[in-house]
Model the fold of this input.
Amino acid sequence: MTLQFAPENNAAIPVTLIASASLDDCLSDLPSAQGAWARATGFSGGYGKTCILPGPEGTIARVLIGIGDEVARKKHRFGPGAAIAGLPSGIYALDGTVYQTDAEEIGLGYLLSCYRFDRYKDNPPAKAMFVAPKGLNARRLEIIAEGEALTRDLINTPTSDMGPAELEAAARDLAERHGADISVVTGEALLEQNFPLVHAVGRASASAPRLIEMLWGNAGPSVTLVGKGVCFDTGGLNLKPGASMGLMKKDMGGSAAVLGLAHMIMALGLKMRLRILIPAVENSVSGNAFRPGDILTARNGATVEINNTDAEGRLVLADALALGAEGNPDLMVSMATLTGAARVAVGPDLAPFYTDDEGVAASLTSAAAMTADPVWRLPFHDPYDDMIEPGIADLDNAPKGGFAGSITAALFLRRFAPVNRYLHFDMYGWQPTSKPARPKGGVGQGTRALLEALEKGMLA
Done:
């Protein structure tokens, strides 16, 4: 969908941002009637709160939006931008007053608050139009919002309309839009071209498994993005209970995030050699489903004992990572809705990441703080390697005991990744309750932080 700022407009309704601590001074600077109105309505400058000041003949003369205090700004994101998007119909612009919050976050908050998922039901667009704050690269923010909208749309679409074939179609549309090369290996050809784990996980589905590869750019550092594309996960023969299947349309959230990030990179024209790898499957149940106790051989020759068919994401990623590692990229990133253990550890709002590269970790952490895209580093804890080594095979896809589930999954993936500069996200990809600029539903995580880090020279 199109998410854009309004053209500059000299007649735009002014928006004044007010911190709680400076409320009295700011209201005293307003015309007396407006200041009195704000006090009478109880406006306190609280984070994201609004006060519409009336003008002659019932027009809107000015809007006050609270940015709270430092504590509130640490606890919340995108409140002022979301408040602007929720204003009555009109064109609005920040006035020239000093405000103690980030203009880029306000602009992005507005754009993301204009997102609507309306494929199946009319969802009226935001009425308010907002002029980009002065000094911002408005087009860059619009591209970021477009990438996030793509991610949200892909996750929100149910598997009936977003299975492996439809995910491939979405990737082809993106490749065509940006002049990228794309190739797809499907069905039995996966065995012929040595993607045995992708084939094993997806072979029980009516929609054939596939490995999607996209290439873009011919100069700069090489960056490979690998996204988990499990379009629905029944759990396989280790069938999930019904309640646990309710959100499994989002199990391709890693691939959705990767495609959204790829759009940002390509539309911004970043100087890099970009490679996208997406194993797209549906983990279903039928007579040819892979079984607990099976031992499978991955692309790189490692054998894997299957102790739970519901730990399938790391299997399809393993083949894709092994393929990516063969190209020796300067950076490889995997993004996946991989473990419930990550949600228990950090909740739905944080995207935990793993890397052995201190420079990559520092760049990403700094970028996350700058982009209101929170991430949290978890360790590749080497002593836990024993937990993923079953004895009968090289690797165990589902260690018993339940401890450190996100870490052991990350350690499993690291066996297939390049030795240097590997970065793994165990993301949730879903907003469980509506928040400013983040309606309930699919959401990108870590992508803005990654983009910022790449732009600022993570690979320099």
